[in-house]
Amino acid sequence: MESQIIRPGHLTAHQTARQLGITLGGVRKLVQRGRLHRSGGSIGQPWYAVDDVTALVLERHAKRALIKSA
């Protein structure tokens, strides 16, 4: 279950997964690979900074655009 109270400027793991179009397992992999860092919450309900998630979303869009133009 998602936490109802979250610090401004942060996303839950579920929200992060939705923004990136991946599963919660995908979010965990990004953390394991050092591509995304927890910025709060708890071990069971981590939070991620909106700026970090936005950077990953933009990176994914840029890669897709590059592939389409090739």
Textual characterization of the structure:
The chain is of the alpha+beta class and 70 residues long. Helices cover 53% and strands 16% of the residues. It has helices at 13-20, 24-32, 50-69, and strands at 10-12, 38-41, 46-49. A three-stranded antiparallel beta sheet has the order 1-3-2. The chain is elongated, with a radius of gyration of 13 Å.
- The ordered string of helix (H) and strand (E) elements is EHHEEH
Query: Any idea what the radius of gyration is?
Result: 13 Å
Count the E strands: 3
The pLDDT mean sits at 91
Give helix % range. 40-55%
- Principal-axes shape call: elongated
> Counting H and I runs of at least 4 residues, what is the number of helices?
3
Instruction: Describe the main β-sheet briefly.
Output: 3 strands, antiparallel
State the end-to-end CA separation.
42 Å
Contiguous runs where pLDDT drops below 50 for at least 5 residues: none
Instruction: Report the sheet-strand fraction.
Output: 15-25%
- Spatially, the strands of the biggest sheet line up as 1-3-2
Structural class: alpha+beta
Question: What is the strand and helix layout of this fold?
Answer:
Layout: E1 10-12, H1 13-20, H2 24-32, E2 38-41, E3 46-49, H3 50-69
Antiparallel strand pairs: 1-3, 2-3
Give a short overview.
The chain contains 3 helices and 3 strands; from the N terminus they run βααββα.
Keywords:
70 residues, alpha+beta, elongated
